[in-house]
Specification:
This protein is an alpha/beta fold and 496 residues long. The chain is 38% helix and 19% strand.
Length: 496
């Protein structure tokens, strides 16, 4: 098969077949459906030769394990999707479900092939349907390696993880020309839907990579963390490393003396997990929370944490979506959840209320409550109000909840509580000493984790140095956990 490599190289991009070969183990890729032809006769299409109908499909191996792969070829009819193009991808996904292996799509397409009319839309519909069928059965990974417009963005949007590449990736429902004609707005493709837009602002992309080579290496790394099909056991890596002395010393000094001061929750995550094992997802989006995968004693876990160095770790609409989505992915593939909690509450104010913080926050509660995988929670500093409940508390089915001795668990912080309970006294300067005593009483009698431990809401109050061992032993105990208390129903109705 001859490929037009130069045309892509001129644009600073790899060709579809080069991308596949970079992604897959050497000499492992096997192409299928290479002889497929389009069946359109309109607008002179019957005279056009479109090799493999613009998409290379097949299977190969990554890290020695089988995968299904497709790559759209922008040098062939702009990578546009016609009926047979869509059918090739849909058939590949169907086969991947049966073969129980991940599907990786390298997307580089101008969208629907206009000349084919409704037949092109049929190709997209069949593809979307197979994306949904595969969801929760086999992982689906999308690499955006060029412009993806219109229907071309919705297949990636259904998949589990989206990788974007700087100066190459573009996703938008309608491109700059349509935006200008309809909205009279001049905007570049990069500003409308470039990699940074979707990794930082929209949250559509889970990873932003500086170049294609980095992208394919990250995909290969991700596949080392996740099960390759529903039901696959996550094999423990016996070669894990953990610098216990260094990390134990560090974790005891992470929290600032001032409990209003921020710190990076990733420091604690790295202290608890195996050396250099934390693999973060959606790093640039909703920085007030952290999601990703890591290894604890060589076994994969899903990581969720509030991050006080971003908006104080508060839960807003974007953080709620990010957390809920990650929880549901981990639960779908039986990946245990480890939660690191330092949350002052849900964000107040008209802006988030109008965006629907109630609806978005409810997703977190729903996702954690629905998840039947092992769930272990560590409260590091504070857990207030509804956010305490939402962040995988005992009340939402956490198997074990641990709290550090200086942590605070309450409806709200001491200042806020005293401001409501003793508003009149606060207004009277002569009662300042009385108010101070009430605040101290609230801190010692209401906020302490000992109260939650006495009620059984906290499994144990532990010192920071014990965190790694406690979480690891808890996960060992929960290894074969089976949840049997599901009521009879077809499925629930998550507040989307």
């Amino acid at each position: 098969m001859e490929y037009n490599l130069e045309k892509q190289h001129e644009k600073g991009k790899l060709h579809a077949i080069e991308r596949i070969n970079k992604l897959c183990d050497k000499n492992s890729f096997v192409e299928i459906y290479s002889g497929v032809k389009h069946n359109c006769t309109s607008f002179g299409m019957d005279k056009k030769q479109i090799p493999y109908d613009g998409v290379i499909t097949g299977f190969g191996k990554i890290n020695g394990k089988k995968v299904a792969v497709f790559a759209q070829d922008f040098t062939v009819q702009g990578g546009s999707l016609g009926h047979m193009h869509g059918e090739k991808i849909a058939e590949l996904i169907d086969k991947a479900i049966e073969a129980r292996c991940p599907v990786i799509g390298i997307n580089d397409s101008g969208g629907a092939r206009i000349q084919e009319g409704v037949d092109s839309l049929c190709g997209y519909g069949d593809l979307f349907y197979q994306n949904v069928r595969a969801s929760g059965s086999v992982p689906q990974i999308s690499i955006i390696a060029g412009p993806c417009a219109g229907g071309a963005v919705y297949s990636p949007g259904i998949t589990d993880f989206i990788f974007a590449v700087d100066k190459i990736s573009q996703l938008f429902i309608t491109g700059p020309k349509v935006v200008k004609s309809v909205m009279f707005m001049d905007i570049s493709a990069e500003d409308l839907g470039g990699a940074s837009i979707h990794s930082q602002k929209s949250g559509v992309a889970h990873f932003r990579c500086p170049d294609e080579n980095d992208c394919y290496e990250r995909v290969r790394r991700l596949l080392d963390y996740i099960p390759h099909y529903y039901g696959e056991e996550i094999v423990q890596n016996a070669k894990f490393a953990y610098d216990e002395k260094k990390k134990t010393r560090h974790i005891e000094s992470v929290l600032p003396e001032n409990n209003r001061q921020g710190y990076d929750m990733r420091d604690i995550i790295n202290d608890v997990t195996d050396d250099n094992s934390f693999f973060e997802t959606s790093e640039e989006f909703a920085r007030n929370c952290v999601t990703g995968f890591a290894k604890i004693e060589g076994r994969t876990v899903g990581i969720i944490g509030n991050n006080p160095c971003g908006l104080g770790g508060v839960l807003d609409c974007d953080a709620s979506d990010k957390i809920a989505r990650h929880v549901r992915y981990c639960d779908a593939y039986n990946i245990p959840l480890v939660n690191f909690v330092d949350v002052p509450g849900f964000i107040p104010g008209p802006q988030e209320e109008q965006k629907g913080i109630i609806r978005h926050g409810a997703k977190v509660i729903y996702a954690y409550s629905e998840a039947s995988v092992p769930k272990v929670t560590l409260i590091t500093r504070k857990a207030y109000g509804g956010a305490y409940i939402a962040m995988c508390s005992k009340h939402l089915g956490a198997d074990f909840v641990y709290a550090w001795p200086t942590s605070e668990i309450a409806v709200m912080g001491a200042d806020g509580a005293v401001g409501i309970l003793y508003a009149k006294e606060l207004a009277d300067p002569s009662k300042a000493e009385e108010v101070a005593l009430k605040k101290a009483q609230y801190e010692s009698e209401i906020m302490t984790p000992t109260i939650a431990a006495n009620r059984g809401y906290v499994s144990e109050v532990i010192n920071p140095a014990e965190s790694r061992n406690r979480i690891a032993r808890s996960l060992d105990f929960l290894l074969n956990k089976k949840s049997m208390d599901k009521p009879l129903k077809k499925h629930g109705n998550i507040p989307l």
